[in-house]
Design brief:
Two copies of one chain form a homodimer.
Chain A lengths: L15 H16 L5 H8 L3 H7 L3 H20 L9 H17 L7 H9 L5 H23 L5 H20 L8 H12 L5
Helix pairs in contact in A: 1-2, 1-4, 4-7, 5-7, 5-8, 5-9, 6-7, 7-8, 8-9
Chain A binds a DNA duplex through helix 3.
Chain lengths: 197, 197
DNA sequence: CCGACTGTAAACCGATCGGTTTCCTCTGTC
DNA sequence: GACAGAGGAAACCGATCGGTTTACAGTCGG
């Protein structure tokens, strides 16, 4: 049976392209950009031939997999656009999701920060994609901070971004197991920014 | 003239071992662990033959270079053991040094966090060395927090470590240029921990 | 039943890399 | 000056990797 088919007679459960993107996202995350293309193809159940006619190069696949991952990641860490509670709760929601993810086994930090750190080249296509995602997160914090009436919304947003990346990094390298640390820290900074609600 | 000699007739200015460790520290930092051994040897002015009789493997050289770097790094970021001002100023001193380093061109984040992130393998010898250095920093924060009479010294120490790594990471990937952000954030957390002095 | 097409499996290619070895030059010693 | 040792330059080796190509199996429209 051809891999990727759910059952005989049905259409492909997932396209070769999606399987490749998923496998790439996971393996690049777990093993870093050094993972051989053969491994990616084997896990995805796709031949190298197909991979190279779907993507120009390994680097292009890496960038595409980060791009592909973005909607799911932001959706899982950012609250829905018009969620009930106020901006304070919406900001803290992000850190609750982070703690949740960091607690699960196999957590290795933020995939986008990790990619940028591992690549060490801001001009790399994948780095550009990662930077855009990280930027979106900063924008979210800034918008909420402004809505909440923070003394300096831009400062608070950057502070929260620092806490997010610091907590993710330290959890990812096993230097801390968080356990409320990110939420508590973000909360303290939000308080210090003059937000009471 | 043989590289590494300061002038004819004098003894070697630096040993081949030290030149190798310095070159490794810089190139691993700038290019990541993927840097070829030939490049390391060329920059160090040492033959591969000598390198491999000084170090067992490339990985061993990486670990040794991180170990070699540790005293200088901690000395440059931690205040002298019995510096005049109180614990609050001593903690903030670390973040001032961080901002200073992050402002210089070519800054790519904390070398130890970067190594652990890039290697993605906590059991790697270099990761173990890096973890030890990061741990030393956490211990410094905890000791100072306790001296300062923080409500929860362990919590404050972990918070400051998070801010340190977050600020270093974000500055390293070009997501933020700090400019007081680390100091201001650390200061806010220290205040929130009930330290007035 | 046929030919065009799609995609897999696998051989293949050239380059690169970690690590070893060979050769030779330079140095210091007696 | 002979000689031993250290170390640099560079060839070399086997493995791996990114990427290409060939060969073949399955599928679909006619």
């Amino acid at each position: 049976m051809t891999p990727g088919k759910a059952a005989p007679g049905t259409r492909a459960a997932t396209s070769a392209r999606d399987r490749l993107l998923d496998a790439a996202a996971e393996l690049f995350y777990r093993e870093g950009p050094g993972i051989p293309t053969d491994d990616l193809c084997r896990v995805a159940g796709v031949s190298k031939r197909s991979m190279y006619q779907l993507f120009d190069s390994k680097d292009a696949l890496l960038a595409a997999s980060l791009e592909h991952l973005a909607p799911a990641v932001t959706a899982s860490v950012l609250p829905a656009p018009d969620t009930g509670p106020g901006p304070r709760a919406r900001m803290l929601y992000v850190f609750e999701r982070l703690e949740e993810a960091a607690g699960s086994p196999g957590y290795l930090g933020c995939p986008y920060a990790a990619a940028q750190v591992a690549l060490r080249d801001p001009s790399h296509t994948a780095s550009v994609v990662a930077a855009r995602v990280k930027r979106r997160m900063l924008d979210f914090f800034r918008a909420e901070a402004a809505r909440a009436g923070a003394t300096d919304p831009d400062l608070l947003a950057r502070q929260l971004a620092v806490v997010y990346d610091g907590a993710a990094t330290r959890a990812g390298i096993g230097a801390d197991d968080l356990g409320g640390l990110a939420v508590v820290t973000a909360s303290a900074l939000i308080d210090a920014a003059g937000i009471t609600e």
